[in-house]
Design a protein that fits this description.
The complex is a heterotetramer of chains A (311), B (524), C (690) and D (311). Chain A is mainly α. Chain A has 12 helices and no strands. Chain A starts with a helix and ends in an 8-residue tail after the last helix. Chain C has 690 residues and is an alpha/beta fold. Among the domains of chain C are: 72 residues, no CATH class; 71 residues, no CATH class. An 8-stranded mixed beta sheet of chain C has the order 6-7-8-3-9-10-12-11, sandwiched between helices. In chain C, strands 18-19-20-15-21-22-24-23 form an 8-stranded mixed beta sheet, sandwiched between helices. A 4-stranded antiparallel beta sheet of chain C has the order 2-1-4-5, with helices on one face. The longest helix of chain C is centred in the first third of the chain and has 18 residues. Chain C is globular, with a radius of gyration of 26 Å. Chain D has 311 residues and is mainly alpha-helical. Chain D has 2 domains: 46 residues, no CATH class; 218 residues, MetI-like fold (Orthogonal Bundle). Helix content of chain D is 78%, strand content 0%. Chain D is built from 13 helices and no strands. The chains are: A mainly alpha (311), B alpha+beta (524), C alpha/beta (690), D mainly alpha (311). Chains in contact: A-B, A-C, A-D, B-D, C-D. At the A-D interface, helix 2, helix 3, helix 6, helix 7 and helix 10 of A face helix 1, helix 6, helix 7, helix 8 and helix 10 of D. Bound molecules: adenosine-5'-triphosphate (2 copies) and magnesium ion (MG) (2 copies). One adenosine-5'-triphosphate (ATP) sits at the interface of chains C and A.
Chain lengths: 311, 524, 690, 311
């Protein structure tokens, strides 16, 4: 087989030779939606709607009292399992709590579970992945092997261990979800870093005499972050779902104000008699995941110079 | 309160019409269980769900009849010695284990001796058999059981499924694996168990020694009895509604109504006996060692409303430490304690717990908190009870920390780390109260942690008192003491519910709430 | 069967996120049977999109034919339904692209991609098609065609792929072959081979060719007629000789002047000032007017029509006569074949003509020999990369640089040329000590450079700077250009915020950018502007030495000229020493005092620029020079090399050039020639120097 | 080649051994005592408990137990369950086929649905189909499996009576669980495939293919898809891993046999030998998935095949 390094090199070398303008064209002009009437502008309408939704959810998380008509803990035993109606737009649950208010008040913890477990996962996974990718060599092997090992250890086992070691509570659910997500983030980050460290601007910076640490901080990390952050937007939703899953397996915490996942898990037994108890929290999760992802996609397109101008 | 007062299995809904038609031979009954048995070796099992299967696989020496009295099964006659230290039982001749091993005194001796042998790692059976010491084989069909101390509960316990009799040959041969290859004398023999899926039993054609408990004392009508293990409520009920299984146990209250209106399904329900779901205060923890604090909780919690709200009227409220149907049950306790937040507040005020700005009481800078431990998953909506109690206690200034944990063994039974913890037990004799309220030995303790010589004395007396009426009196005293001291919050009596297809007929339950499959048949 | 292509008033709109823009406005041209037409013009002038429109490929790229017609024979392409268009593509019109490597699907074999093309247009047995494919590969000069059929694109060299691409284009027997910059990505030697192949094929098959290029040399060599595009319009078109020899549009004249050509060494190039407009901000009137020396109000207000200028030539200029006259006046000097040699100050004047001229002369007359003290010296440099290995394969050594000694004098500009993969960049990196060498020494001012990481190494980084070939890739896309230019300042001098700001502003102005642009981002700049930013960064900390690695190769000629001028000015003003790597031989010749020729990791010849061009001693140098597109210089016989540069993994024995050398003997095969002096400051490694 | 396989095996072995050791450590950290969950501590005397510990070897030092465990494992002895005291290996082997089948079926669904929707949405970028496919995909990743599972049961078993609600015998019982699980994976795959299809559609070689006069369907189905799958394969591999983990919940909901349920029970009961046995199995599956991923890379991408990069 006549595959020489010279040939391998040629491609990138030649790509570099294309005038910069053309390179932009090469990646910019992608297939046109044949015969579609639904065009570019609608992406922004969607993103706008998503932004409004997220803003609304943020409002719910910060000042639920402004939005919710009832207290989330108020158990009106005279009005249990009421179908959606004007006073209770999302109905009431088996305690007689107003489902709408529950969801509004549950926003904070839900977003918190999502955000903080993603944050922890991204920080740990990102750090390990960067280390593995930037330093390389043996450290890379060790870290990635360990990530593989972590991947094979079942998530509920981790959750249980953490709950057992640190006591029950939201914090531990978050930690458990975060730790299970670490290998994924680490992998992506490592791949990114390995790609970015070969970029021209890293070479240029090194040629200028910049210190490796400052290259890592100023060039490599900021440029590697985008896919990780996009992955994190996905993670926001899946963490809430993972929390719901733990709650389903009986590892949740009984909080005064349940998060969406817990609402969903606790209400599932009522699906046939009172569909509204777990359907609306489910829709809340969907709304959140949907909007965050739409925004995430849009934002990646905006940040990623390669995708500039793509819907 | 319990209207009937009796422990008769009350089949609700459709089963009434069934009695008329003649039983049909054959067919397979699929019966969905909510959890999986741990083992089919009765000696080693610790789960009530296993007993549902034991009833089909095994027989016990005695049975508890619908009226609460003891009846013959494998033992035809029994007689206690004057000192109450031994019982002589006459056994039914001609009984064979499903592997052909004859059932006789030797077999009984083997069973009971192996239970007290630590090698067997016996579980609940060991507790039930206590204070058994040894057996003497008087002749082939007569056995004398010797006890360490007299026990009035002993005989009754012989009717419990955990003391079913296993084939000595098979038990010795299979050793540890016996639980996966059970052999008994029951109406069904074991065919196979595929874990987490199903346990398959087949009709034992030789079975002619059925107890009077079922109408059919011969071999069962069903050819096959298959237990499916279906933990998820919705799936279990869905299974009956879609016809994939013919019966499913533990119907959630919210589905009861729907099932009652379902033309294709029927709902069978019976109350269980023993100790109702009861919340125990931990008397070793401040401030719950003080009567007034406990009383305050007692007055603050509106259990009637909780039970009604959560169980939608399908569960009965418990009022005492034992359920109706148990000897000595004190009906006078029913409705005795009415919720009274004002009184509750007053009691706490008296103790010096003062409401702070956040509405939570505090004393000496310490908040008034109650550590409520409950198991997981949300069995019988017990977590929801916790949630409601938390709300109600908040109203009188108590902050409830609810801990839901999978690891009850550690949190509760090892660390005793709870202020309030709930438990229930299926039992037939009030003597079971001992394990909750009698001061335990050195270094050990009970759920309540009570240590009162008076109670100990009543319980000890009750254990040996041969006169039923006097025994009942003793246990009434205990119940009143428990109630007066506000040691517990009795919550509900658990009804065993089964959703079944209309084709299922003759399915009944024993007083413990365990299904009796011998009369069951399928209408084509 | 061959028909004429007629493009009339073609206007193409493209939909972009910013709205619909017009990329091509009302262009008309025709291609007769068997004719070669070259479409020339700077980047972004609309050449590609116009050619894609001919095959309606614009349909897939948010493009729309908004007006005009494209007629092939009697078919109106602009209105054909998709299935008919598809039938046309590849069969009647075929296309080859600039990037052979990117134009093949990397995951299918060459053979399957060839056969697939044929199957799209004819039904035949696989074996027949396979044989046809092999025949085609033979026809385009691919050795061992059967083996190549089974290979993947990644396993073939660029030149070979371009041949395969041509084979693929030929497979449908097209009447018209559109070649969009088919050789831009290739080495000069390979370019010459490919152009030759195209010429031969055209003659034997009687196709028409639409050749798109920005290289006037290529156009001069290939074209029967030339169409010059500017900003989406046609500026001038006509027979090649006329357009190149007597250009009548100021833009054509400017383009020709921008080409660094023989005899102009050291002097300033006559660049066209400014840069082409973007699609979104097209000037009114004549689109060239902002850059045109002849521009009047008329030009600003009304669009000049493409008018007949005689001799079958059309030009779109209100002042064609004046421009042509001015151009003619300057053509006193013997016109080179490209017609570009004439110093025609037609376009906007250079910023500091006098200084430039003066200095240019100085330099030119200055001695080329490195008698001044050497600033940088390389002694017996080797760089071997271990490749392969792992997973049980033996590691092999890739000899990227294989024993190079050279010295660069203080104040000198040393040019480095050679084919792709010859080791130019590697040598450059070694000289700057950005990579450790395998063997040998690099002396900076007589001392060896310290190891990476040490303080002195960092100090050296300040003195030795690099201008990268692809500036865009070396800019962090998230950094503003102020930060990019300021990065060396941050690394080497701790300046206060305002000081830094003013220094950055100064630097930006020094390279002809506005200081106020410091907070813009790289993607907002054109290629030429980006290269300026790169230069500003390189000179930010007053280095002693600059390595320009293909610093202008990616730029349009007009912009290239601007940058070359800028570099020369800066070198002079700052007293810089530099090494200038390029594959554009003319540019190297223009800017450097001495030139080294690298072949497969070895220096084969070093000589003063003019000397090298006048009397190349090594056959390889000679071959390089004669590969420069356009007719060979008078008095020099064509000297073409065959084949491609061998793999540096196992270089040929003896003289490394022998497999491609027409003069090779047994001695060349066995004995490695020494690098010996053959004249003053002129050395070559050849047994039989010319 | 042999060496490559050897290295591969070695690293796989490392991961497996590492996972087992990690789980062992985790269990060592867990408070609580398996013996306590085996017997009723209120009725059993401390001596009995001590005796049981002794029998199970639980009071020997940690490292000794670990070594013994690995030693026994080498001889094929995975120990006995602490709860049912049956041997672990047959217990798990009995359950593995069901779990593997479910994982495979849901992966198949995820891949088929995910790739199809991803391709459709990329090809019809900006159109209604695109929007629909993306939203369907996002729904997939925003619905907890237990919820969608129950919903499926209510629709297809209870209402329509088309499919059995539970069990693990026969294809009919596989349909809903695989659908519920596969849908989640499909969500991520849609996004990935869409993104990478768009990237590839922008590649210059697509223009070449069009210029050759190939049908658009051939271009998209043969060329673009194959190239687009290359970056998607890693994600698909990770999704398969996630689906294996997801069986814990799905097996419970649909009352299927499988190691997922056994694992959940064993963890709750602190039944280390069983957990270890299952982790051993999952580790092997993960290693197998990785191998499969690499093989598919090689199958799809000749560059890797020729270089024999990872195998
Ligand atoms: N699909 C597209 N979407 C938006 N703009 C486009 C598209 N294709 C081309 N353009 C614009 O049209 C103009 C002409 O582009 P074209 O590729 O034809 O130029 P060119 O003359 O071939 O340049 P080069 O020499 O760099 O190849 C450019 O400004 C480019 O930005
Ligand atoms: N880091 C590296 N690892 C392995 N091989 C390398 C490396 N860098 C360069 N090479 C090889 O060394 C040889 C010389 O490369 P170099 O980039 O110096 O060539 P060049 O003359 O600059 O070519 P071009 O004109 O294409 O830029 C090539 O065969 C290349 O593949
Ligand atoms: Mg172009
Ligand atoms: Mg180079």
């Amino acid at each position: 087989m006549k595959f020489s390094a010279a040939a391998a090199k040629t491609k990138s070398e030649h790509l570099r030779r294309i005038p910069p303008f053309k390179r932009a064209e090469a990646v910019g002009g992608s297939g046109r939606a044949t015969g579609s009437t639904f065009r570019l502008g609608s992406a922004d309408v969607l993103t706008g709607a998503a932004a409004i939704a997220v803003a609304f959810l943020a409002l719910c998380a910060l000042v639920p009292g402004w939005i919710a008509p009832y207290s989330p803990t108020e158990m009106n035993t005279a009005a249990i399992l009421q179908a959606p109606s004007a006073p209770h737009p999302f109905g009431t649950d088996y305690f007689g709590r107003d489902v709408f208010s529950l969801i509004v008040y549950g926003t904070r913890d839900s977003l918190l579970i999502g955000a903080s477990s993603v944050l922890v996962g991204v920080l740990i996974g990102g750090a390990l992945g960067s280390l593995a990718g930037y330093v390389g060599g043996r450290l890379d092997t060790i870290i990635m092997r360990f990530m593989d090992i972590l991947l094979t250890v079942p998530g509920i086992l981790l959750a249980l261990t953490i709950a057992a070691a640190l006591g029950p509570g939201l914090r531990n659910i978050v930690l458990a979800i975060a730790i299970s997500s670490v290998p994924g983030y680490a992998r992506v980050m490592r791949g990114q870093i390995m790609g970015i460290r070969r970029r021209g601007y890293v070479f240029a910076s090194r040629a200028l005499g910049a210190k490796p640490s400052s290259i890592l901080l100023k060039h490599v990390l900021p440029n590697s972050a985008a896919p990780l952050l996009v992955m994190a937007t996905l993670g926001l939703g899946s963490s809430i779902l993972a929390g719901a899953g733990l709650s389903f397996l009986g590892l949740g915490v009984l909080k005064e104000i349940p998060d969406w996942g817990a609402l969903l898990s606790q209400g599932r037994g009522y699906l046939t008699v009172a569909w509204w108890i777990c359907t609306f929290p489910g829709l809340a999760i969907t709304l959140f995941v949907l909007s965050v992802n739409l925004i995430g996609d849009r934002w990646r397109d905006a940040v990623d110079p390669k995708r500039k101008g793509r819907a | 309160g319990s209207s009937s007062g009796a422990s008769t299995a009350q089949a609700a809904a459709g089963s009434s019409g069934a009695a008329a038609s003649a039983p049909v031979q054959g067919g397979e009954l699929t019966y969905a269980l909510a959890t999986s048995p741990d083992t089919l070796d009765p000696r080693r099992s610790g789960l009530a769900v296993s007993v549902r299967v034991f009833g089909a696989l095994y027989d016990t020496l005695l049975v508890r009849k619908a009226d609460g009295s003891l009846g013959p099964s494998l033992a035809t006659e029994w007689e206690a010695s004057g000192d109450g230290l031994s019982y002589t039982l006459k056994l039914k001749p001609g009984v064979k284990f499903q592997d052909g091993t004859p059932f006789n005194a030797e077999a009984v001796k083997y069973n009971f001796d192996s239970i007290i042998d630590p090698q067997t790692k016996a579980a609940n059976a060991l507790a039930l058999l206590r204070p058994y010491k040894s057996s003497e084989v008087v002749d082939e069909y007569t056995i004398k059981l010797n006890l360490e101390t007299p026990s009035q509960a002993f005989l009754g316990n012989l009717s419990q499924g955990m003391l079913s009799l296993v084939s000595p040959t098979a038990a010795q041969k299979d050793g540890e694996n016996f639980g996966k290859n059970p052999v008994g004398t029951g109406p069904f023999k074991f065919v196979g168990w595929s874990e987490n899926a199903e346990i398959k039993l087949a009709r034992n054609p030789d079975y002619v020694w059925g107890s009077e408990e079922a109408k059919n004392t011969g071999a069962p009508y069903l050819d096959t009895l298959t237990f499916k293990i279906v933990p998820e409520e919705a799936t279990r009920i869905g299974g009956v509604q879609s016809g994939q299984v013919l019966a499913a146990e533990t119907v959630p209250p919210q589905n009861v109504v729907a099932l009652q209106n379902d033309p294709n399904a029927q709902l069978l329900q019976t109350n269980t006996i023993g100790f109702p779901y009861t919340l125990f205060f931990n008397l070793e923890h401040e401030p719950w060692n003080e009567l007034k604090a406990r009383q305050a909780v007692q007055y603050a919690v509106d259990l009637d409303s909780i039970v009604k709200t959560l169980y939608l009227g399908t569960y009965e409220r418990a009022s005492s430490s034992i359920t109706p149907g148990i000897l000595g049950y004190d009906e006078s306790l029913e409705g005795k304690i009415k919720p009274d937040p004002a009184k509750a507040n007053a009691l706490l005020d008296e103790l010096g717990w003062i409401k702070g700005a956040d509405g939570i009481r505090a004393k000496d800078g310490k908040k008034l908190t109650l550590h409520y431990v409950d198991g997981s998953p949300n069995r019988e909506k017990r977590n929801d009870i916790a949630a409601m109690i938390r709300e109600q206690l908040k109203a009188i200034g108590i902050e409830t920390e609810v801990e839901i944990t999978q690891d009850i063994a550690t949190v509760v039974y090892q660390n005793w780390d709870y202020d309030l913890y709930g438990n229930s037990q299926v039992n037939s004799d009030p003597n079971g109260l001992t394990s909750f309220y009698r001061s335990a030995g050195e270094g050990r303790r009970t759920l309540s942690g009570l240590s009162d010589p008076q109670v100990d004395a009543w319980l000890d007396e009750g254990a040996v008192e041969p006169d039923e009426a006097k025994r009942a009196e003793l246990y009434k005293k205990v119940q009143q003491y428990i109630s007066d001291q506000a040691l517990i919050l009795p919550v509900y009596v658990f009804p065993y519910t089964v959703a079944a297809s209309r084709s299922v007929q003759g399915l009944t339950f024993d007083p413990f709430g365990y299904p009796i499959f011998n009369d069951a048949y399928l209408n084509k | 069967m061959t028909a004429r292509l007629e493009v009339t008033d073609l206007t193409i709109d493209v939909d972009t996120p910013r709205g619909t823009l017009t990329a091509v406005s009302g262009i008309s041209f025709g291609i007769g049977p068997g004719e070669t037409v070259c479409l020339v013009g700077e980047s972004g002038s609309g050449k590609t999109i116009a050619s894609k429109a001919i095959m309606r490929l614009t349909d897939y790229e948010n493009g729309r034919i908004a007006g005009g017609s494209i007629r092939l024979g009697d078919q109106h392409i602009e209105s054909l339904p998709p299935h008919l268009i598809r039938d046309l593509r590849g069969r009647r019109i075929a296309m080859i692209f600039q990037e052979p490597m990117a134009a093949f699907d990397p995951v299918f074999t060459i053979g399957s991609q060839l056969i697939e093309t044929m199957r799209a247009h004819r039904r035949e047995k696989k074996a027949v098609l396979r044989q046809a494919a092999i025949d085609l590969l033979i026809r385009v000069g691919i050795p061992e065609p059967e083996l190549r059929m089974e290979q993947y694109p990644g396993e073939l060299s660029g030149g070979m792929l371009q041949r395969a691409m041509i084979a693929m284009a030929l497979s449908g027997g097209p009447e018209l072959l559109i070649a969009d910059e088919p050789t831009t990505a290739l080495d000069v030697t390979i370019q010459a081979q490919i152009l030759k192949l195209l010429g031969e094929l055209k003659d034997s098959l009687g196709m028409s060719i639409l050749l798109i290029t920005h290289d006037l040399g290529v156009a001069a060599e290939m074209a029967d007629r030339i169409v010059v595009m500017y900003a989406g319009r046609i500026a001038e078109q006509g027979p090649a000789a006329l357009v190149l020899g007597q250009p009548r549009h100021p833009y054509t004249i400017g383009l020709l002047n921008s080409v660094a050509a023989q005899g102009s060494r050291g002097g300033r190039l006559r660049a066209i000032e400014g840069s082409p407009p973007g699609l979104a901000d097209m000037p009114d009137g004549c689109r060239f007017h902002p850059r045109c020396a002849f521009a009047t109000d008329r030009c600003r207000e009304s669009v000049p029509p493409l008018s007949d200028q005689g001799g079958g030539r059309l030009a779109a200029c209100w002042h064609a006569d004046e421009a042509a006259a001015a151009g003619d006046a300057q053509q006193a000097a013997p016109a080179a074949h490209t017609g570009a040699a004439g110093p025609a100050a037609v376009a906007a004047p250079a910023p500091r003509p006098e200084a430039a001229a003066a200095h240019g002369e100085d330099r030119a007359s200055g001695s080329a020999a490195p008698q001044a003290s050497a600033l940088l010296e390389a002694r017996e440099l080797y760089k071997h990369y271990p490749v392969g290995g792992g997973w049980g394969r033996p590691k092999r050594q890739l000899r990227a640089v294989d024993g190079v000694s050279l010295s660069v004098a203080e104040g000198e500009t040393f040019g480095l040329v050679g084919e792709s993969g010859s080791g130019k960049s590697t040598l450059g990196r070694l000289l700057l000590q950005l990579e450790p060498q395998t063997h040998g020494q690099v002396l900076y001012r007589g001392e060896e450079l310290p190891q990476p990481g040490s303080t002195r190494w960092r100090e050296a980084r300040r003195d030795l700077q690099i201008i990268h070939q692809d500036p865009y890739g070396t800019f962090d896309p998230r950094w503003s250009i102020g930060d990019i230019v300021g990065e060396p300042l941050d690394v080497h001098m701790k300046l206060g915020a305002s000081e830094r700001r003013s220094r950055v502003g100064e630097l930006l102005e020094q390279v002809g950018l506005q200081a106020s642009w410091h907070n813009r981002y790289p993607h907002e700049f054109s290629g030429g502007q980006r290269q300026r930013i790169g230069i500003a960064r390189a000179i930010a900390v007053n280095p002693r030495f600059i390595l320009a690695d293909e610093a202008v190769s990616a730029l349009d000629v007009s912009v290239q000229a601007q940058i070359v001028n800028l570099l020369q000015d800066l070198q002079r003003d700052l007293g810089l020493t530099s090494v200038f790597i390029a594959h554009g031989l003319q540019v190297v010749r223009h800017i450097s005092q001495r030139i080294g020729v690298l072949y497969l990791g070895k220096l084969v010849e070093v000589a003063p620029s003019e000397e090298l061009f006048r009397r190349p001693a090594h056959p390889y140098t000679r071959a390089l020079l004669s590969s420069i597109p356009g007719a060979p210089a008078a008095g020099r016989e064509t000297f073409s090399v065959t084949g491609e540069i061998p793999s540096p993994l196992n270089p040929p024995s003896g003289c490394r050039f022998h497999p491609r050398c027409p003069l090779a003997t047994d001695r060349c095969r066995n004995e490695e020639p020494a690098f010996a002096a053959i004249g003053e400051g002129h050395a070559a490694a050849c047994h039989y120097p010319l | 080649m042999l060496q490559a396989i050897g290295a591969r095996l070695a690293s796989s072995l490392l991961v497996i051994v590492g996972s087992l050791a990690l789980v062992f450590c985790i269990f060592n950290l867990l408070p609580g005592d398996p013996v306590l969950s085996m017997v009723d501590p209120t009725s059993v005397s401390p001596e009995v408990i001590e005796n049981l510990r002794e029998q199970l070897g639980l009071n020997r030092p940690f490292h000794e137990r670990l070594l013994t465990y690995f030693g026994d494992m080498l001889t094929g002895d995975f120990g006995r369950s602490l709860v049912g005291s049956e041997p672990v290996l047959p217990k798990i082997l009995h359950q593995i086929p069901a779990t593997l089948l479910l994982t495979a079926a849901s992966s198949l669904i995820a891949i088929v649905v995910g790739v199809t929707l991803g391709v459709l949405s990329a090809v019809r970028k900006g159109g209604l189909i695109d929007l629909a496919a993306r939203i369907v995909g996002l729904f997939g990743i925003s619905m907890p499996t237990f919820w969608s599972g129950i919903l499926l049961i209510l629709i297809f078993s209870v209402q329509l009576k088309w499919l059995p609600a539970m069990g693990s015998d026969g294809w009919a019982t596989l349909a809903m669980p695989a659908l519920a699980l596969g849908f989640v994976g499909a969500g991520s795959i849609v996004r990935m495939v869409r993104g990478s299809m768009l990237d590839v559609l922008g590649e210059p070689f697509v223009t070449t293919l069009r210029a050759k006069g190939l049908r658009e369907r051939l271009i998209q189905g043969k060329h673009v898809l194959r190239n687009a799958l290359i970056p998607a394969i890693t994600l698909i591999g990770m999704q398969i891993g996630d689906m294996l983990a997801g069986t814990v919940i799905i097996e419970t909901v649909f009352s299927r046999q499988g190691v997922g349920r056994i694992l959940a029970d064993a963890i709750m009961a602190k039944d280390l030998p069983v957990v270890q046995g299952i982790v051993f199995f999952t580790a092997i599956v993960y290693v197998g998935i990785n191998l499969l991923v690499d093989l598919s890379y090689a199958a799809i991408d000749p560059r890797i095949r020729r270089r024999g990069a990872n195998l």
